[in-house]
Fold this sequence. Notes:
The mean pLDDT of chain A is 98. The first copy, chain A, contains 12 helices and 13 strands. Chain A is globular and about 60 Å long. In chain A, strands 8-9-7-10-13-12-11 form a 7-stranded mixed sheet. A 6-stranded parallel sheet of chain A has the order 2-1-3-4-6-5, with helices on both faces. In chain A, strand 1, helix 1 (13-22) and strand 2 form a beta-alpha-beta unit. By secondary structure, chain A is α/β, with parallel strands linked by helices. In chain A, helix 1 packs across helix 12. Chain A has 2 domains: 3-127, 3-Layer(aba) Sandwich (Rossmann fold); 152-313, Dihydrodipicolinate Reductase, domain 2, CATH 3.30.360. At the A-D interface, helix 9 of A face helix 9 of D.
Amino acid sequence: xxxxxxIAGATGYxxxxxLRLLSQHPHVEVVSATSEQSAGEPLVHxxxxxxxxxxxxxxxxxxxxxxxxxxxxxxxxSHTKAxxxxxxxxxxxxxxxxxxxxxxxxxxxxxxxxxxxxxxxxELLKEAVYGLTEVYRSEIAKSHLIANPGxxxxxxxxxxxxxxxxxxxDPSREIIIDSKSGISGAGRTPSAKAHFTEVNEGMAAYNxxxxxxxxxxxxxxxRIGQQKMTALFTPYLLPxxxxxxxxxxxxxxxxxxxxxxxxxxxxxxxxxxxxxFDGAPNLSQxxxxxxxxIGAFATPSGxxxxxxxxxxxxxxxxxxxxxxNMNVMMGWDERLGLMSPGIFP
Amino acid sequence: xxxxxxIAGATGYxxxxxLRLLSQHPHVEVVSATSEQSAGEPLVHxxxxxxxxxxxxxxxxxxxxxxxxxxxxxxxxSHTKAxxxxxxxxxxxxxxxxxxxxxxxxxxxxxxxxxxxxxxxxELLKEAVYGLTEVYRSEIAKSHLIANPGxxxxxxxxxxxxxxxxxxxDPSREIIIDSKSGISGAGRTPSAKAHFTEVNEGMAAYNxxxxxxxxxxxxxxxRIGQQKMTALFTPYLLPxxxxxxxxxxxxxxxxxxxxxxxxxxxxxxxxxxxxxFDGAPNLSQxxxxxxxxIGAFATPSGxxxxxxxxxxxxxxxxxxxxxxNMNVMMGWDERLGLMSPGIFP
Amino acid sequence: xxxxxxIAGATGYxxxxxLRLLSQHPHVEVVSATSEQSAGEPLVHxxxxxxxxxxxxxxxxxxxxxxxxxxxxxxxxSHTKAxxxxxxxxxxxxxxxxxxxxxxxxxxxxxxxxxxxxxxxxELLKEAVYGLTEVYRSEIAKSHLIANPGxxxxxxxxxxxxxxxxxxxDPSREIIIDSKSGISGAGRTPSAKAHFTEVNEGMAAYNxxxxxxxxxxxxxxxRIGQQKMTALFTPYLLPxxxxxxxxxxxxxxxxxxxxxxxxxxxxxxxxxxxxxFDGAPNLSQxxxxxxxxIGAFATPSGxxxxxxxxxxxxxxxxxxxxxxNMNVMMGWDERLGLMSPGIFP
Amino acid sequence: xxxxxxIAGATGYxxxxxLRLLSQHPHVEVVSATSEQSAGEPLVHxxxxxxxxxxxxxxxxxxxxxxxxxxxxxxxxSHTKAxxxxxxxxxxxxxxxxxxxxxxxxxxxxxxxxxxxxxxxxELLKEAVYGLTEVYRSEIAKSHLIANPGxxxxxxxxxxxxxxxxxxxDPSREIIIDSKSGISGAGRTPSAKAHFTEVNEGMAAYNxxxxxxxxxxxxxxxRIGQQKMTALFTPYLLPxxxxxxxxxxxxxxxxxxxxxxxxxxxxxxxxxxxxxFDGAPNLSQxxxxxxxxIGAFATPSGxxxxxxxxxxxxxxxxxxxxxxNMNVMMGWDERLGLMSPGIFP
Lengths: 345, 345, 345, 345
């Protein structure tokens, strides 16, 4: 059985990563790849690493034409660009996995406040399922529209989920999320913030307190945790290609020993893409893979736990999780196309 | 007037950095440079960037012989190696600036607990002045033995000092210190933790909760702040050559607006090496310089402030601060030898 | 059908890369992994990226015991360490693929001159097949002992092979080989030459004119080309984890246009792991893959061609080529276990 | 005595580097810094590393207004932008050091062929002195218009100059120049070729055989060497911030031993910024400094020499050499403002 898929926005980093991973998927055929800037060019001109894997010529994105060829469409476009195509593709009976931010926030006014633009398809916000696979697996299985999570929220929420379920967070103190991202998170379009000599051998926080992934994180914390909790979120750009290393200083409502922390994390037993380490996880051990590696530490007071996760922002933080969601939607083994370990060194 | 100085441990990174900076100092002549492993070799064989600046041949370290040539000795040795030479050099009437950890902790039992070794010269702990220049300037001016601060403590304490002075920290919550260091902090001796392919394109925390700079930080927090406060300290290795980026989540005992934070930081007005920025400081702007660049952010609750500092771990975090202390000891302009801006890019 | 293989020297970079790649091979089971330093430890302690893929405990290397479990053994040991085990394993009827230099040079005296050590098993030099797959495929298929090529020789010889076959090189001028290697080529043992802060943001040639891969290259040039030709070989360490970029300035015995160069390279049509590009190949497009990407340029005089290849030194330059050779020996599709494209970015 | 200087194009990397170096110059005051995009902004907003060194507000570039304030103007603009301002400033009696390519080629038709644009001020080509200080020092001292050399030509010509003077190059073979540049050579304007994730962990040649620095190199080779000689020039982008490592394979017209090579290089005795090393020079030893470090190797045949140089492309390859030229023009010690050693690590 072969699923025909299309990728809208194939020449950005998440689009390219979908193509890289899908080249290893036994049940998928990529029938179309789109790019507005490079329409008409062979795909491999823009992604020479894929030479020999794809014969596709890049097309301009026309949802109707795509719908004639593909049964599932990955939208790897910038935000606001996914709203209308998602509507069209769904109306044509297609499955859609959207990697942009357009369907992640459940409230249109909240979207409009943070993205400074009106949401043209608020009715889809109710239909969309937030694609954090480990948390919403059963909803994903039944859905036709997946809002694939942001990279930072994935790294943070996978750490928080077991503690939210266990109901052990102290809501009177802030959850502190200190999150360091590789430069591919800034996208493939040239910009000062991702210019080699501006970021190499440097490091700095950016958008302190005002990053758009904060409302996404807080939405899910409150929904899963069922009470009002507040996060401080500090993102940084780190001079590496891939990876997000997230450290969370978690306020606890009672004293936690290491053993108790470990038992909360037992929730993840059997999860194919969550790996628990005794020490601190390193970005170098998940490069190119779909794993979320986790470490967790008790502190002397016992009232704060230190949690750490390492993910590849392009894989578990974007395209890998999107494929994992596709596998869930199709009722396949969740690991298909995602079975390679990370590349080290 | 020329001061004759010697550098014990000249071929490590802090020794090399002393030599680089002192080559620009108008009142200093380096009369001796030691290395146990390379004694007999020309200095510039081990430090080719300094070719043309120094004609010295590396010597084995003999405090008595050094004392015949030099008036001030920088000890850039590994910990425990500085105790006896410091005693000898002081007895011979020399000034000593020690860049190791041997005289930083004021309590010998505390040293022994964290370094797992007896302290052979506990009587010097009382004489030694902790060389955080901006805090202990007047004591430094009168001292003959400086315990030059650790790199992480420098980046953290310079952020905390104004708030400790202002008495506005809430001692019931932990001070969270999340600190990312370039690899030169691991020294010049080959090791797995600084092997290129082990750390490049990666990032991880290490020694979570058990790093030896934690007691140094807590000692100074409590001494300056005059009450018991607790810190959580998480250090990371970052794949850049130089720099420490420290973020502190500071618990405040009342609501702080941005304005109030700024007014606390006004304490640093006129400090030649502290620069205040509106945004987040970047490691790329202090590379090779003695600056400590600072940013500070209020949060929605007002009960936590987010503070950030960027220093070059080899300059302000080690050799630059050592030279600044030497300048203070000699009654010179504090900036001598330290006037170059950072190298960007 | 499943082949049982063992890896001697599993915790170095080529050993780890064999394990990474073999985890994706449909017909191979790794039954043993050895390490002298870490014997008794779980394999994944030393290679955390492989957690979930292997349950092996590292063993000390005992050829007899290994031979009881495995049918083919990869020797990923340092040079001189492979001679005796190869003898033993062959005598026990096993296939051996040696990734060290021990069987690459066909002449024991030549080996002894360059490696400054006697060769204890010169009789095996005649049996060993030089495992440059594209050149010696039919011999490899019949062999039980493969001398897997060095990383630099692989990148250089794959460029030279078509021109050597075409007989168009001018032997009166030197073949100039300028070859830039990522740091993983220096191995996993900590050393000054691979210490992060010594090599990051730097670049330099090393062993100019005296690198041990020079006699290996010259041996094959002369053997394939059937006449005496001389190479100048300049290797460099480049601050990246993986990859060798080789540029050859090739002296031609007649005027060559671009078209004529292209027609010589047509020899590679149909080769699964050689990709020809119109422009210059980039290390970023073959990272983690078994490809050798090639570019070639005519010059105004036509008497010199500029050839370039990009390989991943750990894959096509070592472990990937070793697996390709295993596939050839077993009569399998040469691409098994090697089908992933490179990771970009 | 203080010279008033202006910098046109102050926010690019060569402009910023002029400012960094001039901050250490005892006889220079920077009275104006221009930027079209950031006119009206404080200079330190664009160059935060210089905070505390300059109080300037960026201006739009108006040659007449600049001429009222400054006696010497550095033009750090992109090519074609320097022609008219140079004319105006010279007519107003000012000295001009142009860091663009506009006055480097002595022939307007040659310029027009390589830059695909007419040269509007061909009469200035005769007046301009090519600012390769070590070669044209006496002409520079008398000039009012300096064409500061390109970064690649500087690294290559400083290697070739002594051999050209010695008349020992074989003109029947090509001079092969293989030159690896850090990314700052691509400038500060965001572009795909300098986008972090496109170049980090990669390396590739570009503009093979068609780079605009080739005619500049060939012009000077022929002029200094007084005969027709041909070069093959291959530039690469290397994932480091700064530095050009140039290797030249030099065809010699007779057999050269190491000793004979060394004696040719003795020409540089006494040069303050040329350092000769026995081994291969490393980019890490000249970072941020004005040195050109040189290594040279004989080969078995003796008919080819291997020459290597390491320069910082922004210093000796641009702004440092420009300041060196200014010092020569002013009759000052050539080293003023350029006395710092490189930053290592």
